[in-house]
TrEMBL record:
Keyword Methyltransferase among UniProt keywords: yes
Top-rank taxon: Bacteria
Protein name per the record: Class I SAM-dependent methyltransferase
Residue ranges of domain THUMP-like in the record: 287-363
């Protein structure tokens, strides 16, 4: 820093910050590297980079928009231009606007050569006959805004403003989908994960939704197109004791309420109708699963014995439907063997007939 200060004077701090943000944008997995080498010349603020949509997710959305109506997409909260770059890379004609003049100036530097930009409030439409894409701010000066009414701009006014138009809104994955439906949203809710972590829930107005689709899970891994599950597929998934494998479905599938649809597609069944674990004799391609070695009624003493008998060392604990803190349990069990194992703890059966069960498993990888 001292060397930078002697060479660049009072501009040193901002130059160092920009260099560090560029490195973070390009190098950090799940950030902007997949948009191409030009990202290493982009301008950011720390918060703008933090808020930027992961490139893989933005490219997935852009590919979907490329297959939709042949109209211009208006990114009405474009920030420094991530989604605009993804749209451009996917061959979608796009324009951008944002209320923040600093971010807009950065967007001019980053994507201004290919995209028309202007300063505007998303709640006062400045385009007609476009598909409007909005990614409201869900954090502001470090504070997280979890309720859609607290987003900037807020979801309710946004939906009122663009009623009857093609609208795509990126939201937090934890939002209350039932409340959204009660408010009259009749389009598609797409929950997207990237490398196993749930990133967002994207709302597609009815005219942009897949035919008959109300819920979709998109599972992205960055290498292949990813898997999509929708509620238009069959959901005839049985309930049975475990087969060879237990599968903990991707968070996007669980969050979108599509566990049964995913199970039916892959020939899996549920261990309990109310719990998201699936089981089967074959794993879906590329999916990490847990090969069942032992089943014991969940009791710490019995579980400790079962793990010792299997020479358990490193231990991973998965829990659904039972009040257990996996980290605290792992500390108490303290297995000392050599073999890495997993334990899946879950409730099987409802009410008085329900029993907490532990499956000692070998993870597939
Ligand atoms: C989460 S960021 C968008 C990030 C962007 N999609 C990306 O991937 O880089 C939200 C943006 O909304 C902008 N914003 C907030 N309120 C707005 C409003 N009423 N009209 C337009 N933009 C607004 C903020 O300035 C911020 O740039």
């Amino acid at each position: 820093m001292a060397a930078a200060r002697s060479r660049f004077g009072e501009k040193a701090a901002v130059l160092v910050e920009t260099t560090l943000l560029r490195r973070r944008a390009v190098d950090r997995p799940g950030k902007l590297g997949p948009l191409g080498p030009q990202v290493s010349w982009w301008l950011f603020t720390g918060e703008a980079l933090q808020q930027a949509t992961a490139a893989v997710v933005a490219l997935h959305r852009a590919a979907r928009l490329a297959g939709g109506p042949d109209v211009v997409v208006h990114d009405a909260t474009c920030s420094v231009g991530t989604e605009l770059a993804a749209l451009h890379a996917s061959g979608v004609r796009a324009v951008g606007s944002d209320i923040d003049p600093v971010r807009l100036a950065m967007a001019h530097h980053n994507v201004g050569a290919t995209t028309v930009l202007c300063r505007a409030d998303a709640l006062h439409p400045v385009t007609r006959d476009t598909v409007v894409l909005v990614d409201p701010a869900r954090r502001d000066g470090g504070r997280r805004r979890l309720r859609p009414d607290d987003y900037l701009p807020a979801l309710g006014p946004l939906m009122d403003t663009y009623r009857g138009r093609h609208l795509v809104v990126k939201c937090g994955p934890g939002m209350d989908f039932d409340a959204l439906r009660r408010r009259g949203f009749d389009g598609e809710i797409e929950v997207t994960s990237y490398r196993g972590s749930v990133r967002e829930a994207c709302l597609w107005s009815a005219g942009l939704a897949g035919p008959g689709v109300r819920r979709r899970a998109s599972i992205l891994d960055g290498n292949s197109p990813g898997e999509q599950v929708t509620d238009t597929g069959p959901d005839d998934c049985g309930v049975r004791p475990p087969g060879r494998w237990i599968v903990d479905p991707d968070g996007a599938v669980v969050r979108a309420g599509l566990v049964r649809h995913y199970g039916a597609r892959h020939g899996l069944w549920q261990l309990d109708p109310d719990i998201a674990y699936l089981s089967g004799d074959r794993l879906p391609p590329g999916v990490r699963g847990f090969e069942v070695l032992d089943e014991v009624a969940f009791d710490e003493r019995r579980l400790r014995q079962a793990l010792a008998a299997r020479d358990c060392g490193a231990l991973e604990i998965l829990v659904r439907g039972v009040r257990v803190d996996p980290d605290a349990l792992r500390r108490r069990l303290r297995p000392r063997g050599a073999r890495p194992l997993s334990v899946v703890i879950t409730r099987i059966g409802a009410g008085a007939a329900g029993r907490a069960t532990a499956f000692v498993c070998r993870p597939s990888r």
